[in-house]
Amino acid sequence: MTDFFKGIPAIKYEGRESDNDFAFRHYNPDEVIMGKPMSEHLRFAAAYWHSFAWPSGDPFGGQTLERPWFGDTMELAKMKADVAFEMFQILNVPYFCFHDADVRPEGADFAETTRNLEAIVDYFAQKMDETGVKLLWGTANLFSHRRFMSGAATNPDPDIFAYSAATIKTCMDATIKLGGENYVLWGGREGYETLLNTDMGRERQQAGRMLQMVVDYKHKMGFKGAILIEPKPQEPTKHQYDYDVATVYGFLKDFGLEGEVQVNIEQGHAILAGHSFEHELAMARELDIFGSIDMNRNDYQSGWDTDQFPNNVPEMTLAYYEVLRAGGFKTGGTNFDAKLRRQSLDPEDLILAHVGGMDACAAGFKAAAAMLEDGKLEAARDARYAGWDSSGGKALLNSDLGTIHDDVLAKGLDPQPQSGRQERLENLVNRYL
Fold this sequence. Notes:
Layout: E1 12-13, E2 23-24, E3 32-33, E4 36-37, H1 38-42, E5 44-47, H2 48-53, H3 74-91, E6 95-99, H4 100-103, H5 110-131, E7 134-139, H6 158-177, E8 182-185, E9 191-192, H7 200-221, E10 226-229, E11 239-240, H8 245-254, E12 261-266, H9 267-272, H10 277-287, E13 290-294, H11 313-325, E14 334-336, H12 347-374, H13 376-384, H14 391-396, H15 401-411, H16 422-430
Parallel strand pairs: 1-2, 5-6, 5-14, 6-7, 7-8, 8-10, 10-12, 12-13, 13-14
Antiparallel strand pairs: 3-4, 9-11
Helix pairs in contact: 3-5, 5-6, 6-7, 10-11, 11-12
């Protein structure tokens, strides 16, 4: 045990009337909704990188956080793990997620870096056995080190492609050893800043081949979890090849991987792509590639990915409504890819940020579940498209332009528009909040 969170109690559910900051008002993990406990629906996970590895810099200033485990030694890496698992227990989150670079020091070469990761994985295994906390997903950091400044899989240097592939293997091995339920790929540098020095066709082929290798290795190792891609449109690169859910699906189709890979969708990335979170979730559901979510929010007055803890219950209601319409999480879950503000320095801030985020998610989820069970929104949507369920509507899509033309003339059709009733439906949604 460490004393970093000394004096902070385990967080319990106390209900909406509680005035205790260190308590849940909405998140009751044992409450059964739609046949399952809320904990099984939401499947909360804490992000190792933002909570324990991030020094709280931004594009205009450096580190503001000072943590006793900051440093590049194995001893400090183990201290970081001790603190992390204490937080997981305080919050009673069932899962966590990590990149390799979050958890182990960089070695003098690839072999030493790999040994460091393997040692920490063994240490994680002990901590997981002691606490019951599980791994939602692992991933490789192929964007922070300067070697990845021109990409990893899409790099013009084949040696960096090889280094990246080897790193992914070690991270998949770590994920499998720890019983991870998914493996995520986020291509933070897989894009370009200018076409003047970019062979886009070659880079897409390299990225596609790397993903095929990942899928092949999954099957070789008998990994039963999901392979997930996390879309993002920009930042740090000007244009990333995994721009949004639809772009990712086109990429998967191009390389014959649409049945093998799903998406991990982040709220902040959806906004940067010019979409809403619920749009990206609905698109993934319709394309049958929905996997998991990173829950955070952006500051809508800033043009970059601010990764703030979620607090907008109406937005989360619409998001979880789409999650439920997709059948809920299978191997995926709700990962808090969110970080403290640069002025929030105390251990209590880290705990309370998660408490608030978990409560907001729970409130949104309960509203979404009530809305889906009530069925009024679905009934209104069905009514709007009812004509397509008629025999004439069904036949229309199997017809041809000439036949349709003749039918319109024969029937003397003069169709008039019907209200979409948007405001009425927006009012309906607000009843559940």
